[in-house]
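Minutes, project check-in
Item: structure for the 671-residue chain
Input as provided by the requester:
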Amino acid sequence: MKNIAQIREISTLSFNERVLQEAEDPRNPLMERLKFLGIFSSNMDEFFKVRGASVKRRIELGKKGMDILLRKVTEKARLMDDRFLGAYDEIMGALAAEGIRIVDEYDLRSEPPEVRAWVAGYFDEEVLPSLVPIILRDGHPIPPLTDGALYFGVKMWGASVTYALLELPPMLPRFVALPNGRIMYLDDIIRHSLHKVFYIFRAERIEAFEFKISRDAELDMDNDFSEGYVRKMQKVLRQRKGGTPTRFVYDADMPPGLFQRLQRELRLGDADTTIAGGRYHNMRDLMGFPARRPDLRFEPLDPSPHPVLDAVEGPVMGIIRRRDVLVTYPYQSFDHLVRLLREAAIDPEVREIKMTLYRVANHSQVVNSLINAARNGKKIFVSVELQARFDEQHNIRISEKLAEVGAKVVYGVPPMKVHAKLLMIRRKDETVCALSTGNFNEATGRLYVDSLLLTADKRITREVERVFDYLAEAASSRAVLPPSFKHLGISPFNARKILYRNITAEKAKGKRGRILIKVNHLTDPMMIRRLRAAADAGVRVDLIVRTTYAMLPHKNIRAISILDRYLEHQRVFVFGEGDDARVFMSSSDLMERNLDWRIEAAFPVYDPELRAQVCEMMAIQTRDDVKARVLDRKQCNAYAGDGGGAHRAQYETHAYFSALGSSADAEEAAS
């Protein structure tokens, strides 16, 4: 696996190509195709801030082959950008045929006078006060430009040529609905009124050409935390704003003189990734495109009733004490977790709540429940991860709000991230726990497929408590002995051992062996070697990998990636088949960083009924022949079964959970 680094970069782009395929897929409703374009754009921004920046750093360190990799990445990105523009034009044409039409500054001339007057008033009242033009002058460097913000490079023709910069106001909506139902980009409203911004120059002609710059998003954190972790994080976040440029995307019609001026001022060298694109950038804003046409969106798939939590009345903790419960959202409701926390916040018998937080919603009901619990006298312990990329500032604010109400807030075990998703509630002398494959985030809980195990099984709750004890001791700066675990797989302590042991057990069965793994990333070389050795012994291996994949082809290994209306985010490990299957769910992917350099939690599913449920979910996914892509050596993203089959996993999974909920309702009614 000498080229694993290259595989990771190209594999990440290959995943984003699958997102682009969804935008190109005519089987998807028009507004959903537009949303996928927005997701594609957002992903490309993050790619160049993170993976692209990593390649450039390795070039600077003199690593061999990285310049070739950068050229490959740039070439693939440009090809996908061309496809993006083609898909955008096609979708906009189809939307116009549906009566949803975007007009630009040229089209505005043909609109009725009252519409033009409305646009002029909107610009004067809402837009103009927010604009800060910067005139480019020799000897005066450009002020630092904000990473990911939209800018106009402005050229004014008059007695002489004058250049200027203009940032598009980020606080205003990108799309503006006109009184007659037409839609305008904010960009074009500004273009239409440039003469009002630069009137003192008396220019004969003024044109604006859009561009944006992406910067290295890596945070350079050393191991000296004497000044305090929060203060140190705030300092490095300020440094990120001036990070090295990693991509410069600009309007291909930008005049050469203006482009060269920006290239010189922004110090974009030959190795920097410059991409000529269309007249609009930051197309992630398409995810918020305004159109009230439900017929052009996916049909609603409401969460199904939970066969236990919705069938039995009474407090959630009482139900969990009697049996393990598995919640898989968005097929079932994330609100069950919020309900549990709200109950715990006001239950007089609850003494203590401990929780890990990695990413939470902007207006988090989870955090609000913890605050309420603290105000009700509960002892609250929260590990907040300050290194959750792009959520750092948000998490600092959360930690401050929790500390204000008396919660004990710690920041993991720096420099390791705490990526485990754990909740522990102690009520008198009993404990219930929640262990999740994904974030405690009600916003993503409607979009990401994840599973949550609710249990009072002492084999698990005792070890969850051991994790929290470790986090508390590590925060005290005392020397801490590594904790031991028998049932949970906690990285970096024993997760590898548990996975290795189970792979080896299946390898010993030869052709009777069976391994099914679902993760977001599979790149760890040691894990790959173990899986290939099992396949060499005849074990049938099924892999469902969402994003980065570094396994070379093998006759006994089948690998697919599923991309549909929800983001597949579960991590599931199934060893064996039938009643003897050993099932684990996890917060961890199969990457070196997750297994060796983060606090992660893999948890067993002991309840036979729940094990069967997880195995059925995975079986449904392996059958997908509509939205599954085959992961092959060339990562060409061919659809399994040419994409024209009868098994669409996410819809079949929704039907499966609906049937579970309905059968529970029927049993309840009969009783």
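Outcome recorded: The first strand starts at residue 134 and ends at 135.
No further action items on this chain.
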